[in-house]
Write a structure and sequence with these properties.
Blueprint (H helix, E strand, L loop, with lengths): L2 E3 L4 H8 L11 H11 L15 E9 L4 E7 L4 E3 L14 H8 L3 E13 L5 H7 L4 H15 L1 E5 L4 H21 L8 H12 L4 E6 L5 E9 L4 E8 L10 H15 L6 E2 L14 E10 L2 H11 L3
Parallel strand pairs: 9-10
Antiparallel strand pairs: 1-2, 2-3, 3-4, 5-10, 5-11, 6-7, 7-8, 8-9
């Protein structure tokens, strides 16, 4: 019988450690424990959780005989796995014993529960751009070629953890400032960066980086190679002063697509679950993936009313 808890103990942590099977793409137990406390942190000023605006219940822990599953419930009733936006492949949490255990709590695994947007890859770069020669993509390609004349554009597959920390720090404050102006603060990014550093340690991180003549980072994007695709996790760029006029966001994607073709990877590019307007030029196609969901409203309310944030 599965049970829900709000904290880790020694046994739950050991079960969590057993969820990763030596695959660094899944992250590690320490990241999930850190995210648990990030999501449940109470503000010293307002004495409310910082996640209360969008989470009805933050970082709960379902425990089974040999497994645990950390998850949260949004105010719309959606179930999200902790670190779902940072770690593209969390299939280690959707194995059969876990799925069966969740059913006792009124939580089901819908095999086609959510959409992800994937950029199909052609047999060659020339074919890819020939099929998309009209419209905005062609204009953006010209802008990208011009940008490469002014800045250093590189795709890095052997970054060190220290490289990741240094480069990210060079854009992070500007990135936060931009989202604060839009009224959509991105919150604590420490766990996410630790995940990227973890991937770099194990040689499983791909980075698109744009830098100036002083080797200062102007834009950066993180990608995780999966079994069947290359997933975009997040892109960050400088937008203050003169940097806001450049199409850094599109350039980071042009760089990774060129990298795919130049290295004969022929790997579809997974843009994630949200199709931002500037990504429509890549003509992504929707694909269905598994998603946890409540069997009914009663199951949702039972969890939210018992474990929901104040």
């Amino acid at each position: 019988m599965a049970e829900i808890h709000t904290t880790y103990n020694k046994d739950r942590f050991e079960k969590l450690r057993g969820m990763f099977n030596e695959d660094p793409r899944f992250g590690n137990a320490a990241l999930y424990v850190q995210e648990h406390f990030n999501l449940r942190r109470v503000c010293e000023n307002c004495e409310k959780r910082s996640t209360s605006k969008y989470l009805a219940a933050a970082s709960l822990i379902v425990e089974g005989d040999s497994w645990v599953l950390p998850f949260s419930v949004t105010r719309t009733g959606a179930i999200v796995l902790d670190l779902e936006t940072s770690i593209p492949d969390q299939s280690n949490f959707l194995r059969e014993p876990i799925v069966s255990g969740l059913e006792t709590l009124g939580i089901l695994c819908n095999a086609s529960g959510r959409l992800e947007y994937v950029v199909p890859i052609c047999s060659s770069s020339s074919e890819y751009y020939r099929d998309r020669r009209k419209g905005r993509l062609r204009r953006r390609r010209r802008e990208y070629e011009s940008l490469k004349q002014q800045f250093t554009c590189r795709v890095i597959t052997d970054a060190s953890p220290d490289d990741v920390l240094k480069w990210d720090t060079e854009v992070q404050y500007d990135f936060e400032w931009y989202w604060q102006l839009k009224g959509d603060a991105k919150g604590d990014r420490t766990t996410e960066i630790e995940y990227f550093r973890w991937l770099a340690t194990h040689g499983r991180l791909v980075i698109s980086r744009i830098s100036d003549h002083d080797d200062e980072t102007l834009a950066i994007a993180y990608f995780v190679p999966g079994d069947y695709d290359l997933s975009v996790v997040i892109g960050k760029r400088r937008v203050r002063a003169s940097h806001g006029e450049y199409g850094f966001g599109n350039a980071l994607l042009f760089m990774i697509i060129d990298h795919i073709y130049e290295n004969g990877l022929l790997t579809p590019l997974n843009l994630g679950t949200v199709l931002h307007q500037h990504k429509e030029i890549w003509r992504p196609v929707p694909v269905v993936t598994a998603q946890l969901e409540f069997a009914n409203l009663a199951a949702q309310l039972a969890i939210v009313e018992r474990f929901g944030a104040d």
